[in-house]
Design a protein that fits this description.
- The chain folds into 2 domains: 33 residues; 125 residues, no CATH class.
- 37% of the residues lie in helices and 17% in strands.
- The chain has a 3-stranded antiparallel beta sheet with strand order 1-2-3, with no helix packed on it.
- β2 and β3 form a beta hairpin.
- α2 packs antiparallel against α3.
- Bound molecules: zinc ion.
- The site of zinc ion has 8 residues, from loops.
Length: 191
């Protein structure tokens, strides 16, 4: 970044602000050489991938939809609104950094489950029961074995688990991934 007045490369940022509804960062810089100030503008590329649904339809990324799904799972659970925001922010950032053009709804749901089970296991169960379309006690057992091994014993899967939620993604997309051990993995690494 050269100074427009003297052409020197050295400068420091003295102020940064997001402008134009988050699409642009403006940085105020001061030249190390001549001391004059100038402004640079950088575009923030919107690189959120599209979501592949269970039926192979593609949808635009929908932050609000994910937020609502997680909020619904956290109703009456001790999970703060800011914790939910952070979770969704983290998922969005991962998606952005992955650089993928498309990501399956199943992969997104799985990452939400990993994050949510670290915050509140019962909220995660509730999310999973909608998202994975739980229909039998063995579905809950499989959930606990995978996402909350330490909390698996002694929790009655039937309590407080309404299934009236709006799933953020289609249920079978994750089920089709098959059983087996999964650690947390970045969204980009799905092959
Ligand atoms: Zn200069």
């Amino acid at each position: 970044m050269q100074c427009p007045f003297c052409g020197d490369d050295g400068n420091r940022v003295i102020d940064s602000r997001i402008a134009r509804d988050g699409a642009e960062i403006r940085r105020r810089r001061e030249c190390d050489e001549c001391g004059r100030r100038f402004t640079t503008r950088e575009r923030i590329e919107e690189v959120l991938p599209r979501v592949i649904k269970r039926d192979e339809r593609r949808e635009e990324w929908d932050r609000v939809k994910l937020l609502r799904g997680v909020e619904h799972a956290c109703v009456k659970r001790p999970v703060s609104a800011s914790a939910i925001e952070r979770l969704v922010d983290g998922i969005e950032r991962e998606l952005q950094e992955s650089g993928e053009r498309e990501v399956s709804s199943g992969a997104i749901g799985r990452r939400v489950l990993e994050e949510l089970s670290a915050i509140d296991v019962l909220a995660a169960v509730r999310f999973a029961s909608v998202f994975l379309d739980f229909s039998s006690p063995s579905d809950y057992e499989a959930f606990f074995a995978e996402f909350a091994p330490a909390a698996g014993s002694g929790i009655d899967g039937g309590s407080g688990l309404e299934e009236d939620g709006a799933p953020v993604a289609s249920p079978r997309a994750v089920a089709a991934g098959g059983p087996g051990p999964h650690g947390p993995r970045p969204l980009g690494a799905r092959r």
